[in-house]
Amino acid sequence: MVSTASLAHPKRVQILNRVNEAIMGRDYKEVRGIYIDFALLKDIRLGLMLAISSPEDREYIISHVKEYNDRLDRKFKTCFPKIKYTEDALNAMLKDEKFSDFALDFAPDTELSYLLQEYLGNILERNHKSKYFLKVPITINIYPLHDTPLVRQCQEAIKAATDSKDFLVSFIREEPVSIKTEYWGMYDVLFIDNIEPLCAEGTPWEVPMKEAQWLTKNIFAPPVISDASKKKWDEEKLKMTERGALDISLETTAQMLEFCCRFQFVTFNIPIPNEGE
What we know:
Number of helices: 12
CATH class of the largest domain: Alpha Beta
Structural class: alpha/beta
CATH architecture of the largest domain: 3-Layer(aba) Sandwich
Largest sheet: 6 strands, parallel
Low-confidence stretches: 1-8
Number of strands: 6
Radius of gyration: 19 Å
Shape: globular
CATH topology of the largest domain: Rossmann fold
């Protein structure tokens, strides 16, 4: 699943540089643990929609992947209003064990899956420069997928590509908002699929974020605008496609999170052939 092919693509190089600069910059703290949401490696939302769609609907979905890459939420239907299923029905299917293998089978790799080995190599190099030589655990959360045959096969492939004397991969299945605070504290780098629920009041992140306990923790997540913000934009007749206003909104959110941790919005898209070339 992890490949170094096409790493020279300009957009991938830009993403790689942003993450590396965030992790390696400032006063470098050795990385002793990494957490990754599996949905950032394989786009299981798109995989589910492709798996349950007719050939005609698949063509419709594929033709709107660019818009899907640019969306500002972690929902299914934002870019595919013609899909007959409701958002609630799609979410229920994604959490249903009998759909796990179908969703994974059709799920495309994201840019993070192509870049992961590069990230790990850079982290290892800096850890050694900091005289830290212990094996770094990598936890991958497969939620909302289940422990099915194809999921296990994918896990074995990831372990085979990543396990070494320097890294040890393990897998969990737990809804992120249910993971205990002390467990989150084990990781220095987090790749989060949907950060919005974790930043709400009453979640395991609330206390460490408010009390600035995670100032050296690196957190990366795709850009997201809350439903309340979208509603306000609609009322003021602003368009999400107006990059200036959008960039300001995302920058403001990122700056607020920067008071609590080392945070960056990073979009790990589905690569589109010839895009940006």
